[in-house]
Protein: GntR family transcriptional regulator
Organism: Bacillus carboniphilus
Amino acid sequence: MSQRQYLKDIAYEKIKYMVIQGEIKGPTVSENELVELLQMSRTPIREALQRLHNEDFLEVSPKRGIFLKEITVKETHDIMDMRLAIELYALERVEPFFREEHLAFLDEKIKEQEEYLSQNDIFKFIQLDLEYHALFLRVFDNEFFVKTLNNISDRLYQTAMIRFGRDISRAWDSIEDHKQINALLREEKFQEVRDLMEKHILKGKEQFFSH
């Protein structure tokens, strides 16, 4: 990998992380500000911005500059509904493929979530949360479902940062839901797992729209 390619990828990850974390405030940011923040030259930053623009994460316009796109109410509804649909569909069919090693993976994700949340690292907590939920899609082995979750993961990060940033106790509550889900999986009560997961995701949606 060339140094230019390497720097472009670093710029991409850093800009995305800083926007999600709220370290870069909108609605606009200048190229000069990013050069100062990232301590990089303009070329890798411009390439990273173009990639983020292509992913519809932000808007780069010759006239308006760099515009940070806030997640809309409709977009949030659509994302949550998509997540609900694919996760519940997978859970209704995952039983024949679910193994002990999958449950061990979920148990480990919960431990890691507790560790990072105790350090107030909400970003890492959310990353682990997405890994927890993605496990069911991977076990069901539907590549399109996995890609769909990956494609909306940035927006899920943003909605979760807002949701948990308002009240971190909601994150601890989410962990308790995961523990209950794991307990039901241990007893092979997959219908109850499906029902609890539906309540879990809908609760997250309700919390996002509450103040």
About this structure: The chain has two domains: 3-68, 73-209. Residues 3-68 form a domain with the Arc Repressor Mutant, subunit A fold (CATH 1.10.10.10). The first strand starts at residue 28 and ends at 29.
